[in-house]
Amino acid sequence: MEEFYTIQGEGFNSGKAAYFIRLGGCDVGCHWCDVKESWDADLHPLTPIDEIVSNATKYPGKAVVVTGGEPLLYNLDALTKKLKEAGIATFIETSGAYPLSGYWDWICLSPKKFKAPRKDIAPSANELKVIVFNKSDFKWAEEYAELVSPNCKLYLQPEWSKSAEMIPLIIDYVMNNPKWEISLQTHKYLNIP
Ligand SMILES: C[S@@+](CC[C@H](N)C(=O)[O-])C[C@H]1O[C@@H](n2cnc3c(N)ncnc32)[C@H](O)[C@@H]1O
Ligand SMILES: Nc1nc2[nH]cc(C(=O)O)c2c(=O)[nH]1
Ligand code: SF4
Ligand SMILES: [Mg+2]
User: Which member of 1, 83, 94, 105 lies 3.0 to 4.6 Å from 44 by CB, making a disulfide possible if both were Cys?
Assistant: First the structure.
């Protein structure tokens, strides 16, 4: 759908320069999704893998974030193999609703109530990033924290439109449950893509 060089705004790799590869297509249906224009894959022409890899190598930051849409709708083995051969670290943002493919240096799992992640993906996650839209999401987040590996980083990220309401609750929750950390969508505050 689009490619752009920016700063990873969210989660563990927040603040790092990275080339974003946004793949079109998603049927998870989060009503608060901030990239709804990605949902219909047919609106976005295909780009050859070699072109994407060549574009990614042009920038000084040697990391890519593969996102979407839901990137795991596609088998990502060929793309990530070539990126890694080109010396680029591979990070993914996924809901986990489709089978895991690809070779990854960092897997961010952001589970959704609207289409549950596949049970086999949680142990592979390096980072669990739960979006907090209302206060019932804390209990739901804990259910996923049980499924990830012991060294998986745990983040609570406010849903953007509910930030003013949810941030105070998240602050309170993290102070009382310090295994969790706050993730903010810092790119939105910085006005960058
Ligand atoms: C647009 S999604 C694409 C990748 C994948 N479909 C997923 O949901 O993980 C990228 C990240 O943005 C988060 N996100 C999407 N809409 C958001 C919103 N309104 N507020 C906060 N985070 C949001 C998702 O949870 C995910 O972690
Ligand atoms: N700067 C920046 N950081 C991001 N982290 C995750 C994003 C995404 O949409 O997947 C995103 C994005 O769209 N922009
Ligand atoms: S899974 Fe990701 S891309 Fe799909 S609707 Fe939800 S936030 Fe948007
Ligand atoms: Mg985004």
Answer: 1
Task: For residue 36, give the ligand 3 atom closest to its CA.
Answer: 8
Q: What is the Cα–Cα distance from 110 to 33, expressed in whole angstroms?
A: 12
- Domain borders along the chain are 2-190
Task: Tell me if the pTM is above 0.95.
Answer: yes
Q: Does domain 2-190 match CATH 3.20.20.70?
A: yes
What is the per-residue pLDDT for 11?
98
Instruction: Share the mean pLDDT of the chain.
Output: 98
In tens, the pLDDT along 81-116 reads: 999 999 999 999 999 999 999 999 999 999 999 999
Q: Which of 33, 126, 154, 189 should be mutated for ligand 1, with most atoms under 8 A from CB? A: 33
- 2-7 and 17-23: which strand pairing? antiparallel
- Name all contacts of 185-190 with Cβ < 8 Å and 24+ positions apart: 185/9, 185/10, 185/157, 185/160, 186/7, 186/9, 186/10, 186/14, 186/15, 187/6, 187/7, 187/9, 187/10, 188/9, 188/160, 190/7, 190/9
- C-alpha 31, offset from chain centre: 17
